Amino acid sequence: MSDDPETAHPQPSPFITRAWVHLMRAQQRVLGAIEQDLKTADLPPLGWYDVLLELSRATDGRLRPYEIEERTLLAQHNLSRLLDRMDKAGLVQREVYAEDGRGRWVIITEAGRSMQARMWRVYAGALQRHLGDKLNDAQADQLAELLTALSRSA
Amino acid sequence: MSDDPETAHPQPSPFITRAWVHLMRAQQRVLGAIEQDLKTADLPPLGWYDVLLELSRATDGRLRPYEIEERTLLAQHNLSRLLDRMDKAGLVQREVYAEDGRGRWVIITEAGRSMQARMWRVYAGALQRHLGDKLNDAQADQLAELLTALSRSA
DNA sequence: TTGATATAGATGCAATTGCATATATATGCG
DNA sequence: CGCATATATATGCAATTGCATCTATATCAA
Hints:
Two copies of one chain form a homodimer.
Chain A: H1 5-8, H2 14-40, H3 46-57, E1 62-63, H4 65-71, H5 76-88, E2 92-96, E3 104-108, H6 110-132, H7 137-151
Antiparallel strand pairs in A: 1-3, 2-3
Helix pairs in contact in A: 2-6, 3-6
Chain A binds a DNA duplex through residues 64-66, 75-82, 84, 97, 100-104.
């Protein structure tokens, strides 16, 4: 009541606030739709795809857990348990990493590669439907540029 | 191997794919940073703020649960339990809704209003830091416009 | 009136996440 | 070497989420 919070703390402009609200809504809406499409096709969630994709691109189909972590949006402890599930499902294997006794290799299996391919078919269709049909390439490019600014030097 | 998946399933263009990756990354990064700022200030997570804001704007500070659901990104069963927690924390109360025996009122308390205000101070600062410092108003406006297209007619 | 169907909200249970910490190994420094 | 600190990964436990279903009430049509 007595001091002035408006000057004490910088207020985001209405444009910023609006962008934020739409960022949350759009992300949740599109992500939800894509996850739903995967589930309908009896496929695992997107996190699994991210891991499989990184592994399938890596030399010898193998990466260290921390490398997967860097390339994806997964927290260390979540990744550790996701790998447990994927291992149990036969999509990856873990091996000791000889150069460093603390390390592990995570290796994609043939089943993992084929799962990645099956998921991509559904994922690609969902992306097209939920994003591609709503933005042209110029708009998508512009969107990506603007979003890139947000991720920098967080 | 034998048929042609490229023609059978529409592939999203690289622009679309890139926009999607950046959408996920930016949202997670900014959301994570904001949540972190709230936690550091010993405040509850953003979902609580969304509910408190809607209630504080509503006539008599009260809404039906399904109205909160429509205005926020919360699923019915999650909202129900969030309201349990907020009730226990003294920020809202529930009352029977006389016109319809199935319904409830959710009413913001004074403690709820002051929590909303306290959270906004931190939230506003975080938005400014994590978004406002990275986009000017014209860019934010453009971003909001592009994202709006994504939420339409999902 | 009665039964069929719809709607509002709550809840049991399993799966996932977050948080802190554990374990094992490595590295650097006196 | 021997200790302090850092790194890679795993794990126990509590909180949150998702899913299905439940309860209660409302609506509608025969």
